[in-house]
Amino acid sequence: MDERYDIAIIGSGPAGLSAALNAKIRNKKFILFGNKNLSEKLLKAPKVNNYLGFPLGTGEELLNNMKEHIDKMGIQVVEERINNVYSMGDYFTLMVNQKMYEAKSIILATGIEYTRPLEGEEKFLGKGVGYCATCDAPLYRGKVVTIVSYTEEGEEEANYVSELAGEVNYIPMYKGDYKLNDKINIISEKPSKIIGEDKVSKLVLRDGKEISTDGVFMLKNAVPPTQLVPGLEIEDGHIKVDRKMRTNIKGCFACGDCVGTPYQYIKSAGEGNIASLSAVSYLG
Prior knowledge:
With 284 residues, this protein is of the alpha/beta class. The protein has two domains: 4-113 and 222-283, FAD/NAD(P)-binding domain (3-Layer(bba) Sandwich); 129-219, FAD/NAD(P)-binding domain, CATH 3.50.50. It is 24% helix and 27% strand. It is built from seven helices and 17 strands. Strands 1, 2, 3, 4, 5, 6 and 17 form a seven-stranded mixed sheet that branches. Strands 7-14-8-9-10 form a five-stranded parallel sheet, with helices on one face. A three-stranded antiparallel sheet has the order 11-12-13, with no helix packed on it. The two termini are 24 Å apart.
């Protein structure tokens, strides 16, 4: 880590892209974290008919327009998954596996995770359940780890963990050609609940079978906001913000689906604009 950004934006959907666009226009030093497809949700939308100035197109077409726009503005997406964000007072530290970034302000545009937590997932959080396998891998040296992944990005984490753990089980919640090393057990049956006493001891599958495991990692599209930023205030399952997209944490702003309904692209883009302008104002 050798520089501190003015703004760090987490999420590359319409909200995050709009925030980045306005940070660029206001000449701020910023970094945008996301993935190469920008927004899986928008990519898969069959049609978009309520985005002003974009009549009757597909989600993919709208996404291509957004990509062309940020490309012309010289905005790049950093393909790294932020695992934790800590407020240090007048700046934030963003943790990415073994690396860290610093920023004076942050904008959360993480979208919403549509997968409901497994039974026992929240109960055992920090007691054998985690959301970042590579971060906690050293704790499971020689032990049994089970990874439940909703995206193919989990394969890379599983391969890394298998170098340290005694045994790794991988449960893909998606279809694909799994690029996993030979040491990893692929389990096709889906999970139903996590059980244990003081900490995780087993993962129960839908067919009733039980896997003995020391740890369970749930690798989802979005890390739950309260896990991402400790102390963040939540209301009705969403990040609580005011009309300027300010959260309860000074210098932390949020926008898009993660702050509430309606889950619409034009609303997300508008909120990204507000969040970015509020961050610029906060930076003074």
